[in-house]
Amino acid sequence: MEEYSDEDAYKIQDEGKRAIFIGIENGYPVGNDLSLIEKFYERGARYITLCHTSNNDICDSSTDSEGPEHNGLSDFGISVVKEMNRLGLMVDVSHISDSAFYDVIEISTAPVIASHSCARALCDNPRNLTDDMLRVLADNEGVIQMCFLSEYLKTPEPFPERDSARFALREKYKNFQNLSEAEMDSARNEWYAIDRKFPPKLATAIKLIPKKETEVEIIDQYKSDHVDDDTIVCRCERVSAETVRYWIRKGVTDFNELKGLTKVGMGACGGKTCIPIIMRIFREEGVAIDDVTENTIRPLFVEVPLGTLAGVKKEDK
Fold first, then answer.
1. Helix-helix angle 241-249:255-262, to 10 degrees
2. Most CB within 10 Å of its CB: which of 4, 5, 100, 199?
3. d(C-alpha 229, C-alpha 246), whole Å
4. Distance between CA atoms of residues 119 and 130, nearest Å
5. Structure-model confidence comparison of residues 62 and 236, the more confident one
6. What percent of the chain shows pLDDT beyond 90?
7. How many CB atoms lie within 10 A of CB 92?
8. What phi and psi values does residue 31 have, to the nearest 5 degrees?
9. Same structural domain for residues 51 and 126?
10. CA 18 from chain center: how many Å?
11. Looking at residue 136, which CATH number applies to its domain?
């Protein structure tokens, strides 16, 4: 079923299904042709992430190694935001620089989204939003979805061996630009090999749980289980049995929801090694659930609050 509005999404949700909005992550394809935005809208796009890891003609990126080009939104970028408001495309501020973020908030006549960002107070990464930016986003009636990639949840520890290997790989493959499909496959495989040789220390859900007194007691109780802290049920993502048990005992009995909270089953193995262990833990916890195989796991889509994000102007409220 096709869906293009919040009304469509609510209808789909009421039918017990998931709604997926088409988005363009990086406004680079717009180039400097404003008319393309309406063409993308007509083809089903309902949000655009204004930039990605590098600056473009719309705005500055938070991570461009060359630094800012426009000191926020460009003049063309201002026109892009206004055109998106006119059409009803959500403006996505993930990836953009701090200055560009504040420019968007000032110019947009509709609430905006940060489709996959995190909090800079939690992890000092320029891709994340500061406390002030989060407050401004809330005042804008916008929405942030948390990005659960480890480097945005936990400040990486120094790892010179891996960093040197990655740098050499980038040089070898010309920063992964203008590669053939075969070259890209080779580069990707070599990148994965580096990660296997120098596995990163990933953030885990258990580290992000608020340390309220009752929850500390709960966690201590879990540590007394017959599965110890070091038991890893998902080697690809380094997910511990303790983390899985915590969320099951918090009432999470849907496997796909558990995937979203722990990343279990989302690693390179596709769940072949960890899913049987997860199912055993479910059964040990007394949760009735059918056996899950690789072929029956449906994709995970995060549910987003809907309603006032696209095409609703502030003066219309």
1. 130
2. 100
3. 12
4. 6
5. 62
6. 44
7. 27
8. 60, -125
9. yes
10. 17
11. 3.20.20.140
Q: Are residues 81 and 140 in the same domain?
A: yes
Question: Average pLDDT, whole number, for the chain?
Answer: 77
Name residue 110's amino acid.
Answer: A
Domain that holds residue 183: 160-197
Contact assessment for residue 179 and residue 187, using Cβ atoms and an 8 Å cutoff = yes
Sign of CA dihedral 17, 21, 22, 25: negative
Residue 124 CA to residue 249 CA, distance in Å, equals 31
On whether residue 264 sits in a domain, the answer given is yes
Count of domains for the chain? 3
Q: Which of 142-146, 150-154, 263-267 bottoms out in mean pLDDT, i.e. has the lowest?
A: 263-267
The alpha carbon torsion through 115, 119, 124, 128 (nearest 10 deg) reads 20
Report CA-CA distances (Å) from 317 to 135, 215, 299: 20, 40, 35
Rounded Cα–Cα distance for residues 216 and 219 (Å): 5
Tokens read off for 161? 């061996």
Residue burial 140-176, b: 16+ Cβ < 10 Å; e: rest: bebbbbbbbebbbbbeeeeeeebeebbeebeeebeee
